[in-house]
Amino acid sequence: MPAPEYVLDSLSNQDSWRLFKIISEVVDGFETLGGMRKGVSIFGSARSLPDSPTYKATEEIAARLVHAGYSVITGGGPGLMEAANKGAYEAGGDSIGLHIHLPHEQSANPYVKTRCDFRYFFVRKLMFVKYAMAYVVMPGGMGTIDELSEAFVLAQTNRIKPFPIILYDSSFWGGMVDWLKDTMVREGYIRAEELDLMVMKDTPESVVEHIRKHVIL
Questions:
Q1: How many domains does the chain fold into?
Q2: Average pLDDT rounded to a whole number, residues 67-84
Q3: Nearest Cα to Cα of residue 65 among 217, 192, 170, 196
Q4: Could you list the residue range(s) of the whole structural domain that residue 29 is in?
């Protein structure tokens, strides 16, 4: 068995080479997305089916955003990511997919016009934040909540300029928002006014109207 020092040195060497892969992904992302028009990142479940009402609503939101002059950014995968890319693609706009390599749910959807590939989630998150002027958070699982939390904390801590974070479908997100108000605020873990960083909307029209009001082209 090698000495502990050897194991640590080996891991250190691997990390050094990994750094070049990370830098490469950052550079590729910057070069691919650098000329993009003002973007809106849309998140949501990879497991939603095309016949679901949420899929249809996501398509409509993306199409309306394109008609309003925005680009649409998604994770490039299936489900609601596909719906957003489809809506943008069929509306003739910029349909961007930030595709992550995963063992499951990793296939890119066919509606992506501009594609970036990532192995590292944190680099992908950087691109979502850097090139988005607003977030639309559709119903989804833990990955969706992760993206929502990332943007919220960055805005909460003034690491980025706050932008619209829209939770679509109050029947889905309302319970979480109530818990934040009734538990986190009450316990002093968050200030009530910080929740104003997020807003809930229930129609595609109101989503785009809110973005147009706060993100001037």
A1: 1
A2: 96
A3: 217
A4: 4-214
